[in-house]
Amino acid sequence: MTWYEGALKMYGREFGVDHINSANTIDNIGEVYRQQGKYAEAISWYERAVKIIERVFGVDHVNSARTLHNIRLVYKNMMDWVSAKSYFERAVQSYRQRRGAGHEFTVDSERALKYAINASNNNSRSTTKSKWWNKSRSKR
C-alpha cells in the first residue's frame, strides 16, 4: 500500500490531483482495500478512479470497465446483489460496445450479470453466492 500511496503523491506533484495518469494507481489502492475486506474504503477509491476515467473518456468507456468490475466485486462480497447488478450492467454495456458481443470479457461479464440478477431475484443470498462464485470461476 505504501508504494501505491507514494506513486499517487508523485502523480499529484507531476500532473495534478486526479489526473488520468493516477487513475490506475487509485484503482489499485481500491483493490488493496477490497482484498483486506475494507469495502467502504475500496468503493471510495474505485469511484474516484471511475470519475477520473469518465471525465477524460466519457461515461461507460471501456477504460472504466475494469474499475466497474472491481466495484461489483465489492458489492458481490458484501452480498449486495442489487448494487452489484447495476455495476455488472455498466461493465457489460461498456465491453459490448467497445469489444463486441463475442469478446471474452463481454461473455464473462454477461454470465456474471445473469447470476447477479438471479441472486437479487431469489433472495437466497448465501446459497446463490456460492453457486454464482463456483460457476463463474469454473468457466474461466
Strands, total number: 0
Distance between the termini: 29 Å
Reported for the largest beta sheet, the result is: none
Structural class: mainly alpha
Question: Radius of gyration in whole Å, from Cα?
Answer: 16 Å
Summary keywords:
mainly alpha, Serine Threonine Protein Phosphatase 5, Tetratricopeptide repeat, 140 residues, globular, 7 helices, single chain, 2 domains
Write a brief structural summary.
This protein is an all-alpha fold and 140 residues long. Helices cover 81% and strands 0% of the residues. The chain has two domains: 1-58, Alpha Horseshoe (Serine Threonine Protein Phosphatase 5, Tetratricopeptide repeat); 82-140, no CATH class.
Explain the overall architecture:
This protein has 140 residues and is mainly alpha-helical. The chain has 2 domains: 1-58, Alpha Horseshoe (Serine Threonine Protein Phosphatase 5, Tetratricopeptide repeat), CATH 1.25.40; 82-140, no CATH class. Helices cover 81% and strands 0% of the residues. It has 7 helices and no strands. The chain has helices spanning 2-15, 23-35, 39-57, 62-77, 81-99, 104-122, 125-138. It starts with a helix and ends with a helix.
